C-alpha cells in the first residue's frame, strides 16, 4: 500500500502549495491504481485534511523547532494512520513515513520523523481537546458562525459529520441504465432510503463501466432534490444560470427525458467544458452551454423560461464532508450580495406562472433564508410554493428547507421554490 501513501502525500503537497482541493491532483495519481489502493489513497488524503488541526495539536507535543513543510506533511499523514486507522499496522505507517522523508528531505529529518512517531505511538491514546475548533479541525470563525446559528449540540453533530468518510452518491441515467441492474453491478451499492434512482457506493466510481458508459453520474441526493421538486417536465424551456460542473443541468435534462430546451450557463469558460463532456457521456442532446454572468441581463430571455435554476456560488459549508479543504477558507461575507443580485436578475427570465428555484450547498442562514426572505420582500410578483418533498424524507412541508449534513442522508443544502404569479 506504499503507492496509496505516496499518492496521498503528492495530493497533500499540491494542496499546501496551491491551496486548491487536491481532488484533481489525487485523480491524476489514482489513474492506473487498483480500486483498493485508490480508495486508501483517497481516505488518507481526506482524513489528513479532516483532522489537520487536531493532528498538528497532537504532533506539537513531540516536535521541537520548525519543520520543513514536506516533513510536516509526512508526519500528518503517518499520525493520521496511527491515530485513526485500525487496519494499518503501526510499523508500516512509521517505516513508510521514514522512507518518504529520506527520499523527499534528508537522513537527519528521517531520524526525527522516526523519533516523533515512536514517541507519539507510546503516548497513545492521545486526549481529545474540549475546544470544538481543535477537536474537529474546523477553524474558529466557522465554529463561531455555526454556534451562533445552531447552538452547541447541533454544531458538534455537524462538525462530527463533516469528518466522517463521505459516501459516493450516484444518480441513475434513465436514458441508459436502471437502478435495479446497477444495484447488482456496482460493488457495495445501496438504494438511497428515500430518493428513487439514487444509489450510494463506497470508493471512487470513475473507473467503473457504469460510469464510463454514462449509465450513472455523481450527485448528492440533496442536489438532485432541488431539481426533482422544481416541476421541470419534458418539452419545457429551462435555464440553469450557475451550471458547472453540470450536475443540476444533467438532472434537469433527464427529468425532461432529453426533450425541450435547456440553457446551461457559467461565468468560467473552462467550466463549461466540464458540462459539455458530462452531457456527452450521459447521451444528453438538449443542453446548450452559454458563457454568461448570471448577475448581468440577457434581454432575449426576459419572461421566456418555464423554470430557472439558480444554484448560486456559496460558501460551500454544507459539503465539507466531501471537500474537506473548504473549512480552511473563511466564508466571504460578500456572498449574500452576489446571491441577491443573481436571484434578482434570474427572476426576470421566469415567465408568468413559471418557477424560480434557489439553492446553495451551504447551511448559513445569511446565504439561505435571509436571501430568500429578502427576495420575497423585494419581488411581490413571486410567492413561495410548497415543494413536493419525497415521502420518507422527513422534510417538513413548506417552500424552503435547510438540510443539515447527515441529518437526512444528504449533504448540507438549502432549497427554496418560488413561483411567479400568473
Ligand atoms: C454551486 S456551483 C454550481 C453547481 C452546479 N449547479 C451543479 O449542480 O453542478 C456555482 C457555479 O457558479 C459559477 N459562478 C460563479 N459566479 C457566477 C456568476 N456571476 N455567473 C454565473 N456563474 C457563476 C461558478 O463557476 C460555479 O460553477
TrEMBL record:
It catalyses: cytidine(967) in 16S rRNA + S-adenosyl-L-methionine = 5-methylcytidine(967) in 16S rRNA + S-adenosyl-L-homocysteine + H(+). Belongs to the class I-like SAM-binding methyltransferase superfamily. RsmB/NOP family. Residues 144-421 form the SAM-dependent MTase RsmB/NOP-type domain. Its EC number is 2.1.1.176. InterPro entries: MeTrfase_RsmB-F_NOP2_cat, MeTrfase_RsmB-F_NOP2_dom, NusB-like_sf, NusB_RsmB_TIM44, RCMT, rRNA_ssu_MeTfrase_B, RsmB-like_ferredoxin, SAM-dependent_MTases_sf. It comes from the Bacteria. Keywords: Cytoplasm, Methyltransferase, RNA-binding, rRNA processing, S-adenosyl-L-methionine, Transferase. This is 16S rRNA (cytosine(967)-C(5))-methyltransferase. Gene3D superfamilies: NusB-like, Vaccinia Virus protein VP39. One of its GO terms (biological process) is methylation. The keyword rRNA processing applies. The gene is rsmB. It comes from Faecousia intestinalis. Pfam families: Methyltr_RsmB-F, NusB, RsmF-B_ferredox. NCBIfam families: PRK14902.1, rsmB. It is found in: Cytoplasm. S-adenosyl-L-methionine binds at residues 242-248, 266, 293, 311. Specifically methylates the cytosine at position 967 (m5C967) of 16S rRNA. It is an enzyme of class 2 (transferase). One of its GO terms (molecular function) is methyltransferase activity. The active site is at residue 361.
Amino acid at each position: 500500500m506504499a503507492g496509496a501513501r505516496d499518492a496521498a502525500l503528492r495530493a497533500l503537497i499540491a494542496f499546501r502549495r496551491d491551496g486548491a482541493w487536491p481532488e484533481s491532483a489525487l485523480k491524476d495519481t489514482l489513474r492506473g491504481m487498483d480500486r483498493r489502493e485508490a480508495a486508501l489513497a483517497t481516505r488518507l488524503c481526506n482524513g489528513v485534511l479532516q483532522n489537520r488541526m487536531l493532528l498538528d495539536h497532537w504532533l506539537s507535543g513531540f516536535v521541537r523547532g520548525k519543520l520543513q513543510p514536506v516533513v510536516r506533511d509526512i508526519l500528518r499523514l503517518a499520525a493520521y494512520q496511527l491515530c485513526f486507522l485500525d487496519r494499518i499496522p503501526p510499523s508500516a505507517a512509521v517505516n513508510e513515513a521514514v522512507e518518504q522523508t529520506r527520499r523527499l528531505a534528508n537522513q537527519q529529518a528521517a531520524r526525527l520523523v522516526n523519533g516523533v512517531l515512536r514517541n507519539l505511538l507510546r503516548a497513545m491514546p492521545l486526549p481529545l481537546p474540549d475546544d470544538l475548533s481543535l477537536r474537529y479541525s474546523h477553524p474558529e470563525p466557522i465554529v463561531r458562525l455555526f454556534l451562533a446559528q445552531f447552538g452547541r449540540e447541533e454544531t458538534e453533530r455537524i462538525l462530527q459529520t463533516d469528518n466522517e468518510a463521505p459516501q459516493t452518491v450516484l444518480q441513475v441515467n434513465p436514458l441508459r441504465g436502471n437502478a435495479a441492474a446497477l444495484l447488482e453491478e456496482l460493488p457495495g451499492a445501496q438504494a438511497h432510503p428515500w430518493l428513487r434512482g439514487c444509489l450510494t457506493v463506497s470508493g471512487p466510481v470513475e473507473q467503473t463501466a457504469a460510469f464510463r458508459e454514462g449509465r450513472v453520474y455523481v450527485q448528492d441526493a440533496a442536489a438532485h432534490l432541488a431539481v426533482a421538486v422544481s416541476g421541470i417536465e419534458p418539452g419545457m424551456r429551462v435555464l440553469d444560470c450557475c451550471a458547472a460542473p453540470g450536475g443540476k443541468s444533467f438532472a434537469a435534462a433527464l427529468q425532461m427525458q432529453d426533450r425541450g430546451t435547456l440553457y446551461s450557463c457559467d461565468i468560467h469558460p473552462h467550466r463549461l467544458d466540464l458540462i459539455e463532456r458530462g452531457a456527452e457521456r450521459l447521451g444528453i442532446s438538449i443542453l446548450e452551454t452559454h458563457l454568461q454572468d448570471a448577475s448581468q441581463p440577457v434581454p432575449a430571455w426576459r419572461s421566456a423560461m418555464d423554470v430557472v435554476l439558480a444554484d448560486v456560488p456559496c460558501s460551500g459549508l454544507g459539503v465539507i464532508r466531501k471537500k474537506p479543504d473548504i473549512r480552511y477558507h473563511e466564508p466571504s461575507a460578500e456572498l449574500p450580495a452576489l446571491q441577491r443580485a443573481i436571484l434578482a436578475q434570474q427572476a426576470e427570465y421566469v415567465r408568468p406562472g413559471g418557477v424560480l428555484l434557489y439553492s446553495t450547498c451551504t447551511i448559513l442562514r445569511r446565504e439561505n433564508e435571509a436571501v430568500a426572505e429578502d427576495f420575497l420582500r423585494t419581488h411581490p410578483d413571486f410567492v413561495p410554493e410548497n415543494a413536493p418533498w419525497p415521502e420518507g424524507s422527513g422534510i417538513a412541508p413548506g417552500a424552503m428547507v435547510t438540510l443539515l449534513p447527515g441529518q437526512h442522508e444528504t449533504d448540507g443544502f438549502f432549497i427554496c421554490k418560488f413561483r411567479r404569479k400568473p
